[in-house]
Design brief:
Number of helices of chain A: 12
Radius of gyration of chain B: 27 Å
Oligomer: heterodimer
CATH topology of the largest domain in chain A: Rossmann fold
Largest interface: A-B, 10 and 18 residues
Strand content of chain B: 15-25%
CATH topology of the largest domain in chain B: Chloramphenicol Acetyltransferase
Helix content of chain A: 25-40%
CATH architecture of the largest domain in chain B: 2-Layer Sandwich
Largest sheet of chain A: 7 strands, mixed
CATH superfamily of the largest domain in chain B: Chloramphenicol acetyltransferase-like domain
CATH class of the largest domain in chain A: Alpha Beta
Chain lengths: 330, 461
């Protein structure tokens, strides 16, 4: 097992996929000569040339449309949107075209396209450059949405995304790029639509994804050490399709659930999961489902205000302490 | 707005009874103010406010009991002061609940009883009160069975409980309204139901008013005949304090789970009494006099040091030798019994032991013992010598392995060189845990106690 960063995991996988299948190509702003704003595509233009690693003008709707068309004709584009905030320009291409073409044209042509894009706040990039818009895509039938939290899953899920014949939104997080983690040797894939119990526990379940899943894991270990409270952590990994079975089983076991997400609270991933849990595990709930999410404001530029608005370990610890069963027999 | 909840005041505490409110609704409360007194299973303790504000509402009235974590009062700005009204209502509800609890508590006994129904029916006089009770219980049973479905919709409609708690209660046929909730706002959660079931499991066939504990081990037939649960006319039913409940629970557990055996001996106390008189003769006004009990405690402590097996505990298949010798002394207090502990009694002089014992006994009688004062004992002494007792057999105070019973010293003729001589003879009995202690070990320990008391200067070493 090698320990590498999330960034390396992505870079290695892109390289592998370009090598494995000549129909795979990369397209996006500044991914070639500049090697990507976050250096995910470092070295790839040099090794694979401009037909496989395509720099584009600043025109998201244009190049997402181009990639959709290429996918219709049998290529397997991997699009990089510099950050998720710019994807808004391409919503029509994604929601009205990529997500629906297979369905609307009688299954004649699938759209094997991956759109990679980082989101997340905490970098002082202010209101329009710090968003978490995963819900927008998770809401749309015809799309798949994944949001890994570890280098291992980043690799496994990116491979699965490239192999998948549906458009996949591959969500990254700016604050995860430098996170290190062990990655198994050899070729493996992580199935889309399968959550992972990243830590087993008995008292309360924390359900999360992307960066917050890694924060949740830290918090769970810390709390267990400090207070003996046994926290189970479920890393969703995929937001659509959602692995309801794993979260339901976990909450059936612990009786208590918290959804921990970096996006805004209302209409969020947490809302969806809370609804699922009350539908499917009502008789197992020992407390109301809790949502821990960010404050509902456009994210401020000022560092103290940004920190105040974003959710994090502190908020999760508070929620766990509030929700956890009183352990009277200790 | 801040909520004051029932604090955890000792390790074993599960609930507390409010003995006194020191603030009333409308009173200003500062951070750190003592707002109430609570009786736990072990002691009377004070409840301190962690917030400042105006006491707006009292949710648990004096004399009422609440589990750890339950909100007992609400502090606020003073705009919503509720003079009694709300609190009455809350208490009314709780009263209703505890009444229900009383009737409900008989339920587990039903099953056992109906099996024995023939015995009762054979009673030719028909005057057996238990037969009548059974009939009423049986009809209760039916009503309950019929009501089982309705339970979640009607009788407990106003009860706050988690879906999981409701399900578990339903699965066990328990009416959830008889359970007290420890969750936010008094919500009943899984743990509350589990605790309730556990308690019921621990007290099989024990309607609140019977004297069942003594009878549980008797043959069933005898029990059926001897255990009419009904109270006779004129009987008084009194609720026992949480301390008494703890005593009942722990001693029943001890006698039922620890295999007791007993070893007795007699000690010639004549020399020890002489020494004591000498030690006390010059104490003067305000000095601390040494009692016979202090000498016995010291003798035990030294003997425990010599026989560490007796200074130990049995736990989960393991034999724990305690490093320290902490001797508990049973102290008689109104409506109960406490066992404050003299720590490191083997290292303390008899005068220190006397002084400490006096302080602890005073604190005990005033109900002011702190948890530290009565925890950590490794052996106990129960002395009824001042009550004209010829002998008695004590129950081990878990997790200790043994306890010494001290009876009254009496002037007795004993043969000395073939001649009858009057000496002060005191019977001692040790109850010991046979899982880790055996007859010979305890006999040797008792011999050493005897030797020390008969050579009392060794106690001063």
């Amino acid at each position: 097992m090698a320990e590498i960063t999330f960034r390396q995991a992505l870079n290695e996988t892109l390289r592998e996929e370009l090598t494995r299948d000549e129909n795979v190509f990369l397209i996006g702003e500044e991914i070639g000569n500049f090697e990507g704003s976050y250096k995910i595509t470092a070295g790839l233009l040099k090794d694979f040339g401009p037909r496989r690693v395509v720099d584009t003008p600043i025109a998201e709707n244009g190049f997402v449309g181009l990639a959709t068309g290429a996918a219709m004709l049998g290529l397997r584009p991997i699009v990089e949107i510099m950050t998720i905030n710019f994807i808004i320009m391409a919503m029509d291409e994604i929601v009205n075209h990529a997500a629906k073409i297979y369905y609307m044209f009688g299954g004649q042509c699938p759209i094997p396209m991956v759109i990679r894009t980082p989101g997340g706040g905490g970098q002082q990039l202010s209101a329009t450059h710090s968003q978490n818009l995963e819900v927008w895509f998770s809401h749309v039938p015809g799309l798949k949405v994944v949001a890994p939290s570890t280098p291992e899953d980043a690799k496994g899920l990116l491979r699965s995304s490239v192999l998948d014949n549906n458009p996949v939104i591959f969500l990254e997080n700016l604050a995860l790029y430098n996170v290190r983690g062990e990655v198994p040797e050899g070729y493996y894939t992580t199935p889309i639509g399968q959550a992972k119990v990243s830590k087993e526990g008995t008292d309360v379940t924390v359900i999360s994804y992307s960066r917050m899943a890694s924060v949740a894991l830290d918090v769970a270990h810390r709390i267990e050490q400090e207070t003996g409270l046994s926290v189970e952590v479920v890393d969703l990994r995929s937001l659509r399709p959602l692995d309801t079975e794993t979260i339901i089983n976990s909450v059936k076991k612990t009786g208590r659930g918290i959804i921990f997400e970096e996006d805004w609270r209302t209409y969020g991933i947490g809302a969806e999961i809370a609804a699922t849990l009350q539908e499917e595990a009502f008789d197992y709930l020992d407390a109301p489902i809790k949502r821990v999410a960010s404050v509902e404001v456009p994210l401020p530029y000022s560092k103290p205000l940004e920190l105040a608005a974003l959710t994090g370990a502190r908020q999760l610890i508070e929620a766990i302490n509030e929700l956890a069963p009183r352990r009277r027999r200790r | 707005m801040a909520e004051v909840s029932m604090p955890r005041l000792s390790d074993t505490m599960q609930e507390g009874t409010i003995t006194r409110w020191l603030k009333k609704p409308g009173d200003e409360v500062k951070k750190g103010d003592i707002i109430a007194e609570v009786e736990t299973d072990k002691a009377n303790m004070e409840v301190e406010s962690y917030d400042a504000g105006v006491l707006e509402q009292i949710l648990v009235n004096e004399g009422e009991t609440a589990p750890i974590g339950q909100t007992i009062a609400v502090l606020g700005s003073g705009e919503n002061v509720q003079q009694g009204g709300q609190s009455k209502q809350a208490s009314g509800q709780q009263d209703g609940q505890s009444k229900k609890a009383d009737t409900q508590q008989q339920k587990p006994s039903d099953n056992g009883k109906s099996e024995k129904a023939p015995t009762a029916a054979e009673d030719p006089t028909g005057a057996n009160p238990s037969a009548e009770v059974e009939r009423s219980l049986a009809s209760d049973n039916k009503a309950q069975a019929k009501g089982a479905e309705a339970q979640s919709t009607s009788s407990d409609a106003g009860v706050k409980a988690s879906p999981l708690a409701r399900r578990i209660a339903e699965e066990h046929g328990v009416n959830i309204s008889q359970i007290k909730g420890s969750g936010p706002g008094g919500r009943i959660v899984r743990e509350d139901v589990e605790d309730f079931l556990e308690q019921q499991g621990n007290q099989p066939a024990q309607p609140a008013q019977t004297e069942a504990p003594a009878q549980t081990s008797q043959p069933a037939a005898q029990q059926a005949a001897a255990a009419p649960p009904a109270q006779q006319q004129g009987d008084e039913v009194r609720n026992i304090s949480s301390m008494q409940k703890t005593i009942a629970r722990r001693l029943a557990e001890s006698k039922q789970t620890v295999p007791h055996f007993y070893v007795s001996n007699e000690v010639d106390l004549t020399d020890a009494l002489a020494l004591r008189q000498q030690l006390n003769s010059n104490v003067g006004e305000g000095g601390v006099k040494i009692s016979v009990n202090d000498l016995i405690v010291k003798a035990c402590a030294l003997a425990l040091e010599k026989f560490p097996d007796v200074n130990s505990s049995y736990k989960d298949g393991q034999f724990i030798h305690h490093q320290r010798v902490n001797v508990g002394i049973a102290v008689d207090i109104p409506n109960g019994l406490v066992v404050p502990v003299i720590r490191d009694a083997n290292l303390k002089g008899v005068r220190s032991i006397a002084r400490e014992t006096k302080t602890l006994a005073e604190k005990a009688r005033a109900g002011k013992l702190a948890p530290d004062d009565f925890s950590g004992g490794t052996f106990s002494v129960s002395n009824l010598g001042m009550m004209d007792v010829t002998e008695f057999v004590p129950i081990i105070n878990p997790p200790e392995a043994a306890i010494l019973a001290v009876a009254s010293a009496r002037k007795t003729f004993v043969p000395v060189n073939g001649q009858p001589v009057v000496r002060d003879i005191m019977p001692l009995t040790v109850s010991a845990d046979h899982r880790i202690l055996y007859g010979a070990a305890v006999a040797r320990f008792l011999q050493e106690v005897k030797r020390l008391l008969q050579n009392p200067y060794d106690l001063l070493g």
